[in-house]
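Q: I have 119 residues here and want to know how they pack in 3D. Can you give me a structure?
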Amino acid sequence: MLEYQKELLALRLKEEDVGEHIMLAEVTMWSHIHFHNQLKMVLQDLTMPAPPNWNTFLNEIKDVNVDILQDKVKREKEKKEAERAQNIRIACLESRQHNPVEVLHLQMQQTTLGATAPT
């Protein structure tokens, strides 16, 4: 089974989930609204923004060019992977940064007040 087919099948809304609340990013929403938003994102550029009726909508989805859909899914995956890698690099760099007050504290610990005699 092709990858895009797996993704589309993963968008399946189970009958028992209709009318249920789900928590996403600390926001409560209806499961069917989340499902609709996911499907809309996948097919957004490939269908009309507001089809006049249900049959037109279904026909548009059925007639979507599979090659274009695959390419879109591939680009979206690559984008998410690049964002994830970038976030990992940012977290790594942030963990390396020292607190400026801590650096100043360490410098002051090594400071002496007064002249030292040369040996």
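Q: Anything worth noting?
A: The first strand starts at residue 21 and ends at 24. The radius of gyration is 27 Å.
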